[in-house]
Amino acid sequence: MTIINRRSASDLRGVMRLAVDATIGVTDLVEKMHHTIQLAHPPLGTSRAGQTEGLTGFVYRSIRGTTRLLGQGFDAGMVPLISLLPDKASSSTRDALVAAINGIYGDHLVETGNPLATKMGIRYQGERLDHEQAETVNHAVPGAKSKVLLFVHGLCLNDAHWTRDGVNHGEALARDLGYTPLYLRYNTGLPVAANGRELAAMLEGLMHNWPHADCELVIAGHSMGGLVARSACHHGQLAGHDWLRHLGKLVFIGTPHHGAPLERGGNWVNLAMDMSPYVAPFTRLAKKRSAGISDLRHGSITEEPNGFVQLPADVECFAMAATLAKKQSRIHQRLIGDGLVPVDSALGNHRDSARTLEIPESRRWLGFETGHIELLGSGAVYQQLREWLE
């Protein structure tokens, strides 16, 4: 018989909170549709729908009130129980599911205090690394090298996803080039700028407490992870952080520097749906996607809308892109790319030369017949990484 543990009970509490939020959201949607029909709206135009009145309004208010009351009662009852249950290590399946939920609703989880919200942390060999004290770092990372390689994962993923098809680029580079591989785990649903600011502060502490005072730091970011790395550099410069003097190289693997078309397409669909009052209530559900996903529309790394920041000076930057095509095809690369990120976006190219990232041709790589996630387990990607970092 499986014994309920502290982690599973906390997850159940988090899922119940999401269920309560979802029930209230659906109730609001149905009420707006009900009110739209009552108002006999024309098929196009701005919706004037709000809350219904009379007995109908009372029914909707009762549903919301009862749902909140049941959710609060369950939540209050779980709090003392969780502290009494035994703790247990997390499973890879559970972590993958939580990572996906954070990618889609991560900002909402934080705003509502949901226990499913992932807290940022640097990990070594699967364990969270306490970077605040030198003694702790020395104990947690025995034999730490003077070369540190930090991997930053992408949207809806976690640090465990750097192992794919039995391949882990970090472990291979540790074996072949003598790096100490570290992995970041973070809430990908938060704004990229917020994650970048927190990572910058975390790296300041880590580099201060690392056993080697003159160590070299390399950051490799996959997909959104590359944007978070760039944002960390930006916020580190604004704060005058010392860790930037250790940073020698940045490697971007399938990073949407200038955005991803799927997110832009989703935004256009929302705008089209808002044109009809009968469809507009449904856009509220679509707009629930996280701030992290919205940042992928244009590759935002700062708080300013469409704010552009060039790559940090005195840091060697490398970019990897992929395409599903068998050979070079301009149309295929612009529209499809690796299935999520176009080639130009991954390489930092832009129609406006002022927004093109200054990455030399010798530091760019294009892979064929390779998908976005397949970059994580690609032998060709590893060989290029090794060549650049050797």
Helix content: 40-55%
- N-to-C SSE string, H for helix and E for strand: HHHEEHEEEHEHEHEHHHEHHEH
Structural class call reads alpha/beta
Q: How would you write the strand order of the largest sheet?
A: 2-1-6-3-7-8-9-10
Question: What general form does the structure show?
Answer: globular
In terms of quaternary structure, the protein is single chain
User: What's the pLDDT, averaged over the residues?
Assistant: 83
**Main sheet attributes: strand count, strand direction, barrel closure:** 8 strands, mixed
Distance between the termini: 51 Å
List low-pLDDT spans: 265-274
> Total strand count, please?
10
Rg to the nearest angstrom? 23 Å
Percent range for β-strand residues: 5-15%
Number of helices: 13
Which key features would you list for this structure?
13 helices; eight-stranded mixed β-sheet; alpha/beta; two-stranded antiparallel sheet; 390 residues
Describe this structure in words.
The protein is α/β, with parallel strands linked by helices and about 400 residues long. About 45% of the residues lie in helices and about 15% in strands. The protein has an 8-stranded mixed sheet, sandwiched between helices. Helix 1 packs antiparallel against helix 2 (about 55-85). It is globular. Residues about 265-275 have low confidence and may be disordered.
Q: Secondary-structure map with pairings?
A:
Layout: H1 6-39, H2 54-84, H3 92-111, E1 121-124, E2 127-128, H4 134-140, E3 147-152, E4 163-164, E5 167-168, H5 169-177, E6 180-185, H6 192-209, E7 216-222, H7 224-239, E8 247-253, H8 261-273, H9 280-286, H10 291-295, E9 316-323, H11 330-335, H12 343-347, E10 364-368, H13 379-389
Parallel strand pairs: 3-6, 3-7, 7-8, 8-9, 9-10
Antiparallel strand pairs: 1-2, 1-6, 4-5
